[in-house]
Amino acid sequence: MSFEHLPDGLGIGVPTPRLTWMLPPDACSQEAYELELARDGRTDRTGRIASSDQLLVAWPGAPLASRERVTVRVRVWATEAGGPSGWSEPSVVEAGLFDAADWHALPVGADRDEDPAADRRPTRVRKDFELHGPVARARLYITAHGLYEAEINGRRVGDEALAPGWTVYPHRLRYRTHDVTGLLAEGANTIGAWLGDGWYRGKYGFDGGTRNIYGTDQSLIAQLEVTYEDGTTASVATDRTWSAAPGPILTSGLYEGETFDARLHDPGWATPSGAGAEEWTPVRTGRRDFGTLVAPTGPPVRCTQEVVPVTVTRTGDNRHLLDFGQNLVGRLRVTLDGAAGTAVTFRHAEVLEEGELATRPLREAYATDTLVLSGQGPLTWEPRFTLHGFRYAEVSGWTDDVTADMVTARVYHTDMRRTGWFECSDPLVNRLHENVVWSMRGNFVDIPTDCPQRDERLGWTGDIQVFAPTASYLYDCVGMLDSWLTDVGLEQLPDGTIPWYVPVIPGEPMWTPIHPGAAWGDVATLTPWTLYQRFGDLDLLRRHYPMAKKWVDLVEGLAGPTRLWDTGFQLGDWLDPAAPPDDPAAGRTDRYLVATAYFAYSARHLALMAAASGSGADAERYGELADEVADAFRHRYVLASGRMTSDSPTAYAVALAFDLLTPSQRQPAGDRLAQLVSEDDACIATGFVGTPLICDALTDTGHLDVAYRLLLQTQCPSWLYTVTMGATTIWERWDSLRPDGTLNPGGMTSFNHYALGAVADWLHRVVGGVTAIEPGYRKIAFHPRPGGGMTWARTRHETPYGTVSLSWEQTANGLTASMVVPDGCEATAQLPGCPPITLTPGAHVLNTAELATKAV
């Protein structure tokens, strides 16, 4: 049993959480279910409900009240079973704080004058308190203006990083609920927190960044609620009785890095006897509209892996260069012992240039951490309020040897559950897929970012729009992306314009003021639809429908009666490899062709959203609009000869993938696309828009062989060129590193951008052969299409209903495919040269030769 899209039910933010459960093994399908809710000393059961629903089932009882705990169980009646199953293991859901009146905390921080235009030293805050009896249960509700890490009696609360994450803070600030029962003791206790600037007031963004985007204070908001064993309660909340003091972190910034002076650190500062009274002064209190505090809908950022260096090289001037063998996002944890005052500096970069860290691509993100040793013995340390994108790290200021056991790279990202895997007989394609996974991990850091290393790291709407199908296969990212889409709706302009990136920060002169742009703004329609298809959440679709409708209505007005969106600022097929380094939008494809194509595609998807949501009138209206735009597209951009006005791969890919051509036009367009690819020797000739579409456009028009040639090309530009150049993540540009080993001279040269890795969705569906036909994979199509000399492939995905997998292999007796259909689902299998057959839940093995014999 699970609640909403959360890994557990503690601190849930909705009074009527929806319920999801997996069927018992070999249940095949569900005919009915019964739910049991235990609350307030009583147990209620729904009785037998005839239904096959098991995904996001409506809450069956009275809404939860703030702080209320309910234990839930389910049992099911499976098809052809003689009776009900046993009851599931009990699952507990516990409400967070639903109402502003539930909060009585105040934001607290340092009461000292600071220069808001300068670096400011982070603060720690603390509070001593007494507990007058044995503790039965304790909850800490906590958030901050800025970032925080909390401690109780010297022990860390939780394990999340960069909390509370980044939302549109004036409207939504996340708080998290922690069970801290085990951290408290009868008698004297202390609670404290480290504070950092983070996105709230740190320097962030382009061209030197902007400070204080959301405010100038750095404040903790915390409410500890204790229930004694005798049933009485106590509360400790941030207020004027707390104290503040500068901590041992001297400077901290997401871009800049962190400086920590261990001589100033008292490890017992958050214990009852650990703080010198002379260091601590009363706090300054602030204000917060508690109606804006919201519970999370997804997991937090955490350390998910540790990587040790594969080589440590000492330079002639006593620096050490560490290679971790993998471009990753995180920070170093080091253990050092040296003389007091020894300053050891750690710099980071993704690649090397002439044997040194290549820092030019970082622009003004200095990615430098400094540790000043205390001389009090070995110290293990890592920064708290920064992250870096890097494969290489340089250590300076340390004259002794640096060994691999002294330094570990700790990988951080939103701690989503892995749900998708793929591998095949081609090791280069496997490395490409692994690079896609690593780029997703590095850029899903509370929001979906473009890159994790330079002075940007923003929630670009176009990047996730093209990558969402891949992301939603690889990881259970629905809770995180649902939260981010909520912020997209909040940042949407009154006229319907979707910003280029969300949350919005200053971006003059190119990105501010905000203009509507195709592919980027279409995140409003296409990404909610993708999440609905992959996770089966109709409520999510309905919540984001108003945003999608405002976007399509805006574009309809911009296009006017012609139905052609052929005015205004557009990025077109961004980063087409033919575009010059200093003008990534100057590709081969008419920007307005791209804009009009996306207009038609979004209108079509809005009609689908309306139909799924039960709005028949809107479905009809926007379906007709999509038809009108497609007709206008053909008249403007398709020539009488059948070619397109932009005779480019992206133009044909968009027209085919978005179904904008007549039946008689499709095959000639597919043939021309295949011809263009072949004339380029199967080197990629598409940017952000065309890349996710081109392999499908070729496949669907009978050119699977050309799609495989495109996939398997190793010359620049191509997907596998980056692999042959040693890439361990997806690059922003096809030639971020040029064949001669030099860096691309463009100002945008990231080595960790997931957008061009959107081809992994084609790998999953076409090479691997698994496609969702109904939302949530309730119906599945197995349709592998081998090619390119591959002899085997396998893919596996954890759907909301359970594991679906397909493994195929070419043998002397034809192609053999092993498939697993989750309980509660249906599937069809269509192997090469064979008619489709229906599969029931369970494991199946099919062979093309045997199927052909049966067909005869």
Summarize the structure.
This protein is α+β, with helices and mostly antiparallel strands and 856 residues long. A hairpin with a 5-residue loop joins strand 26 (311-314) and strand 27 (320-336).
Mind explaining what this structure looks like?
- With 856 residues, this protein is an alpha+beta fold.
- It is built from 15 helices and 45 strands.
- The strands form 11 sheets. Strands 20, 21, 25, 26, 27, 28, 31, 32, 33 and 34 form a 10-stranded mixed beta sheet that branches. Strands 2, 4, 5, 6, 7 and 8 form a 6-stranded mixed beta sheet that branches.
- Strand 38 (770-772) and strand 39 (779-782) form a beta hairpin.
- It is globular, with a radius of gyration of 28 Å.
- The two termini are 47 Å apart.
- The relative contact order is 0.08.
- The model has no long low-confidence stretch (mean pLDDT 96).
